[in-house]
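In the previous chapter we treated chains in isolation. Here, by contrast, the input contains three separate entities that must be folded as one system, with a combined length of 1006 residues.
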Amino acid sequence: MLCATVVAVALWLVAPFVWLFVTSISYQKNLLARPFPLVPPEVTFDNYRMILGLVRFHAEGQAAKILASMWNSLVIGLVVTAVNLVVGTTAGYAYARFSFPGKTLSLFALLFTRMLPTIVLIPAFFLVFRALGLQNTLTGLVIAYCSFTLPFTVWIMKAYFETIPADLDKSALVDGCNRFQAYCRVVLPVSGPGLVAGGAFTFMLCWNEFVVAQILNTRPGTTTLPPVIAGMNGQINIDYSVIAASGFLGALPAVVLVLMFQKYMVQGLTAGSVKG
Amino acid sequence: MAWLFAGPALLGIALVVAFPLVYSLWLSFTDVNLLRTTGPALELGGLRIPLFRWIGWRNYVQVLADPLYWDSLWRTLYFVAAFVAEAAVVGLAMALVLNERFAGRPLMRSLLLVPWSLSRIVVGLLWIGILDFEFGALNGLLLRAGLIDGAIAFFKEGWTALNVLVSVYMWNQAPFATLLFLAGMQSISEDLYAAAEVDGAGYWRRLWYVTLPALRPIVFLVLVLATVNGFLMLDLIYVLTMGGPGYDTTTVSWHGFKTSFTFFKFGPGTAILYTLTALCLLLTIVYHKLVLGRFEPEA
Amino acid sequence: MTIDRRTFLGGAALSAAAAVLGEGVWHAARADKPINFSGWVFKPDTVKDYVDFYNKKHGGQVKYDAVPWATYHPTMETRALSGEIVDVMYCNSANRERWFDNGFIRALDELPGMDELKKKMAPANLEAARSRDGSKVVGLPYFTSLFILIYNEPMLQQAGIKAPAKTWDELMEHSAKLKRDKVSDTPYLPNWNNSGSGTMPQLLSDCFSEGANVFDAKNRVILDQEPGAARAMERWQKAYKDGLVNPEVLTKTSSTDTHRLFWTGRYAYHTNHSYYLRTIAGEPENSKLAPKKAKMTMYPGNGQTHMFTEWYTVNAKTKVLDDAWKFAKFLGGNLNGDWYVQRQWCLIAGLDNAYPEMYDNPEIIQSYEKWVDLKLLREQYKKGRTINAFKEPWFSEWDSKAIAIVHNIIRGTSTVPKGLKELAALQKSLA
């Protein structure tokens, strides 16, 4: 009974994604065939070759954008993650350890930003970036992405640091360190799971983000990956199997991240959500 | 000292969140015309931020007078309610399964996060491969098994399309609820279960009398997060239905998005989005009051 | 697609010979400044090929970017508003006046060579190229087309139907019969897709064929006063209700996407832009109804359908006007001396064109044999009706928002009279 349920759940979670992969290595005409083939009669990696530019095909203009946009997504993800890890963790530490005027109010404000529809900020970003000349730049997107990642990182790290006993810091302070040294030398080293969770999660948010990138970066060459994949979906002369290949490639980094760091992410993300 | 630590982040957030928030709010009270480069503006050290002309509540009146707004609001409420219910139930169910001990549990835990890790664009794409009328796997398999005579068009009709959207989004988000539930379940003391067993309680009674009450705070958390996520959802609509057929899958956020960026009416567009923001603020207050800030909000 | 390249290269050889006499080859030495060129997705490989040809032969440095059709105009507007300059852009009729009024695109009259081109354009197209007040030409023609009725001959024969429908009633009867006999689940495929090239132009065509006017002399919407429009809408409602139409058509995002359904051979009747018959009947590698198993027949009713032109436009803010205009003339004029681009489009995709001179070429005339009865097509063109309302400032928004109203009529969510009134009211509210 349990075995069956477990298998069912596993299928539910993974089968659609596996199917994406299967379609990406199939020929479109086989997907359209009736009766529907349970096992793809022909397997091909041509779709991937087309996307990676190794094989010429009729929509290579669009496919060429995929690698370029992956690079943009990577750069943006890494920069935003770095900013978050440096600035967000220190703030999280402050909230976890200190009490200061405006703490409760700013915490509430942080909570509110977590619940904001980011889309409401975009008209403002559009106009301000236009004035600053930041439209269609990676810098602009980095700034925009910090808007929804920073509050989150602060909150996670605050919760995570709260699970680290304050005695650890205190003993370092007693030894003559100042706060910052205590933070760097004693607290951070044991915060691995939290940092990994925060970092991986931030990177994932950036890698997967669609709406903001779609609006702010329209010039070819400045786009990130999700708009390009969505754009491929909109191009009717591209077979679904090719689109599936691009989707699979786009999903791979996030899936790998999650599989690799699952333990840390779970620990970091749910830390403090349960007391005791 | 605290300010040294928290300062940079707070400053950053003030710049990239608070400022655009206020500016967007301002825009919703003006007649924004993206083509006009003259007019009142805010000059900040060489930077010219256009201010446009104040017109008071006119944008809001225009937006609220449009029946499409109210249609999309009811639709959004339905969508959110359905999504929250499905995500909570399925999330809890998966958590219950994963809480049991069985071989390969760590692997299952990893697999759990796979749907959640995908960009919603990929999620939409992936489900198109399953649900499409011509080449979708579901139609193909059902036809082959003789269970249906003709392929089912999942996105043809508003009601079906909306429900499909809910289920697809749930597939993407339920794992996160499962994570939270699991964390909660693991903190329930074994003694409580032992005591219940001594009293002769079977699986379902234990679930009802021990597990669920202990999970109540997590349940609240999941409900509120799911509600907020439901209100904000945009990218799935973009890749699956574009708000159609007709306006049948147009939610308030989609309506605001289209008004702002397809017809470039930033005034009414930001007004629509601000009504959404007001709803979210309300939710935040509700959440804060109910759960007293003890628990983690997550995405 | 290999076939296309061969045809293409063949064409290139021809034109190279012709161009020795033209201006092309003398300009090859001087390299132009880089220009950006964007169009919606329609055979982007063909476009890329002729862009490469232009760059090599005419010393251009054109960078081409294809944007999905469904979001083409909003995307281009976003790019314009964010300060990006795309020097030459496609633009459809519905959005052109808006772009001109808002200063995105420029008038072309004073540019060198425009006067000659004006003389070579068919008068109807020249009229359509003008701005609302008639004083300026704001686009060069990309292609012209009109709605036609295509039928699946083998399927009709299989069901014992000897001739394609001549009236709308016959079409409905045939479809009902095909469905009853289980020859096809959804035999009727109208172009009800969700984009600007689908539902509304289809509505115009069907209304015209019922003798209804959609706009009055002042370009106001009068659908609610025309019995022909009500007839057409009632028929649409009935077709949907009786299950004669595949409901997923309503969610397709382009006419290209829609016509691909007909390739499967599972539909009996299809109404769409004329050039799609080229793929359906002329490309066996793509369509089950090729070669020439799908045929054209005169549009039912009085035979009139909606005829339209799409445009190349030049950015008003371009910094390289000379080179942009040169490229625009290559695309929409006769820079190469042999109507190169227009011929390629006709040969490869069946796109018709605003320059009658081009059709003097025997290769062109012969190419039609592959997919359509040219005489019949010309007959249909005589019954093509254009509209003028697209030059109104409210038109693009009306055209876009009307789709949902019409879809509600089709699906029966709204009654026909109510829906038609809504269409008229929508225009009034935007005017």
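Chain C has a mean pLDDT of 88. Chain C touches chain A at residues 1, 41, 43-45, 48, 64-71, 75, 78-79, 81-84, 253-254, 256-257, 260, 264 (CB under 8 Å). Compare these points with the single-chain example from earlier in the chapter.
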